[in-house]
Design goal:
6 strands, two-stranded antiparallel sheet, 112 residues, four-stranded antiparallel beta sheet
């Protein structure tokens, strides 16, 4: 996909519907399921993505995390480290550590 200055939730969903495969840093492949809200510490995030990590387990990632990784890349021309992402998204990553890898994979669709 073409690199732009911003990324929006609809673009991400459209991209995942076109290709539901989400490759991870460690070579695993997760699968996009659907747009689905999620709660983190009682806070509802409407713009979230539900994805499958195994035959019996699935997770959700917030668009806020994806957008943050994208914006960091736009400003610095590199992806943030897990430590950098954890500063703002420690609650999300505590129960969903694979979300870091998923965010990188999704953002790679939009940057070169």
């Amino acid at each position: 996909m073409k690199e732009e200055n911003t990324i929006n939730f609809d673009q991400v969903i459209q991209s995942l519907r076109h290709n539901s495969n989400i490759p991870t840093i460690r070579g695993r492949n997760y699968t996009f399921i659907e747009h689905a809200p999620t709660r983190i510490n009682g806070i509802l995030f409407e713009q979230s993505i539900h994805y499958r990590i195994s035959d019996i387990n699935s997770k959700r990632i917030t668009f806020n995390l994806i957008q943050s990784v994208y914006e960091h890349h736009q400003l610095n021309n590199e992806f943030p480290t897990r430590v950098q992402v954890n500063v703002s998204f420690s609650r999300e990553l505590a129960s969903r550590p694979c979300n870091y890898s998923v965010a990188l994979s999704i953002v790679r669709r939009f940057v070169k």
